[in-house]
């Protein structure tokens, strides 16, 4: 068992040597669209409508259909919004989506998005009978579909076991985003060489905000603007990374999409903002070391 202190050093951000971003940018903003597949033959990965009398039901029709709405309708709203704002996103994709929702996967490939490995089908890493085999399968399925091996990994639900990081490095993954503990990339030690942590977000993730904490949609917009403003200001001395993580069945619905669009309208007005992907942040960080 390896604890966090075995994986990475504690590093106060105030003591770090400033790094530089391309063209002198203050902040790197990356957008992660989480594209998932839920197995209707199992309890749902998440519930918006709780089970009657607290008893889990299979099939869970309303919650599976809630997710499926995102693939049939919500995704296409997000895609249109990102194309309108000239944003090349990262998709954290359950690999089986390339077979079960091929038009979605093809649209992201055609748009030039980065494909980030995100397991095979949505479910905690702890439940897998062979974790490393599942990691290998997800990487291979993405590589076969896109023609390029993914460099990044996001655990389904940000889940890891004690051994996950070692398995990821052994299978050739180069950066991970499960560790939401910094505003800058940093190195992680594994038995197969170093990985890099690229900052992700749970505070600007629509699952915690909308589904768990039940905030109004406008609160996501205000929180994103507030986060951007502070990181932008701090980035004048030492650049920061900001992640926006969304799901088609949440942010892609009719009553939320205008708030998603408004975030990019706001950020686009500022100079010194690098709209990019997780892979590009990782590559730039690596070049600076």
Commentary on this structure:
The protein is an alpha/beta fold and 289 residues long. The chain has a single domain (20-42, 53-288), classed as Glycoside hydrolase/deacetylase (TIM Barrel, Alpha-Beta Barrel). The protein is 38% helix and 13% strand. The chain is built from ten helices and nine strands. The protein has helices at 4-7, 61-84, 97-100, 102-110, 131-146, 164-170, 206-212, 217-234, 257-267, 278-288; strands at 27-35, 90-93, 114-117, 152-153, 175-176, 186-188, 195-197, 240-246, 273-276. The strands form two sheets. Strands 1, 2, 3, 8 and 9 form a five-stranded parallel sheet that branches. The chain has a four-stranded mixed sheet with strand order 4-5-7-6, with helices on both faces. A hairpin with a 6-residue loop joins β6 and β7. The longest helix is centred in the first third of the chain and has 24 residues, at 61-84. The mean pLDDT is 96.
Helix and strand content put the structural class at alpha/beta
Helix content: 25-40%
- The N- to C-terminal Cα distance equals 29 Å
Low-confidence stretches: none
Count of discrete domains: 1
**Strand count, sense and closure of the main sheet?**
5 strands, parallel
- Work out the number of β strands: 9
The number of helical elements comes to 10
Report the CATH architecture: Alpha-Beta Barrel
CATH topology type: TIM Barrel
CATH class: Alpha Beta
Mean pLDDT rating: 96
CATH superfamily: Glycoside hydrolase/deacetylase
- The run of helices and strands is HEHEHHEHEHEEEHHEHEH
Shape: globular
Q: What is the CA-atom radius of gyration, in angstroms?
A: 18 Å
């Amino acid at each position: 068992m390896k604890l966090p202190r075995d994986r990475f050093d504690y590093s106060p951000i105030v003591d770090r040597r400033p790094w530089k971003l391309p063209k002198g940018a203050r902040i790197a903003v990356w957008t992660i669209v989480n594209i998932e597949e839920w197995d209707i033959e199992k309890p749902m990965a998440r519930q918006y409508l709780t089970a009657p009398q607290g008893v889990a039901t299979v099939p869970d029709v309303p919650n599976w259909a809630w997710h499926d709405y995102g693939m049939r309708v919500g995704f296409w709203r997000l895609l249109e919004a990102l194309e309108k704002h000239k944003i090349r996103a990262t998709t954290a994709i359950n690999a089986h989506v390339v077979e079960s929702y091929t038009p979605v996967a093809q649209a992201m490939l055609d748009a030039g998005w980065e494909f980030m490995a995100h397991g095979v089908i949505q479910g905690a890493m702890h439940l897998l009978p062979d974790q490393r085999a599942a990691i290998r399968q997800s990487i291979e399925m993405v590589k076969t579909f896109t023609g390029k091996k993914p460099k990044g990994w996001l655990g389904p639900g940000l889940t890891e076991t004690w051994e996950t990081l070692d398995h990821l490095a052994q299978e050739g993954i180069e950066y991970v985003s499960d560790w939401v503990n910094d505003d800058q990339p940093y190195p992680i030690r594994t038995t197969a060489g170093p990985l890099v942590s690229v900052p992700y977000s749970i505070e600007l993730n629509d699952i915690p905000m909308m589904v768990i904490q039940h905030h109004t949609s406008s609160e996501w917009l205000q929180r994103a603007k507030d986060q951007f403003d502070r990181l932008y200001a701090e980035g004048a001395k030492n650049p920061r990374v900001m992640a926006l993580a969304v799901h088609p069945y949440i942010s892609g619905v009719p009553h939320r999409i205008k708030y998603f669009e408004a975030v990019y309208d706001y950020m686009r007005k500022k100079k010194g903002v690098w709209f990019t992907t997780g892979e590009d942040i990782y590559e730039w960080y690596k070049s600076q070391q």
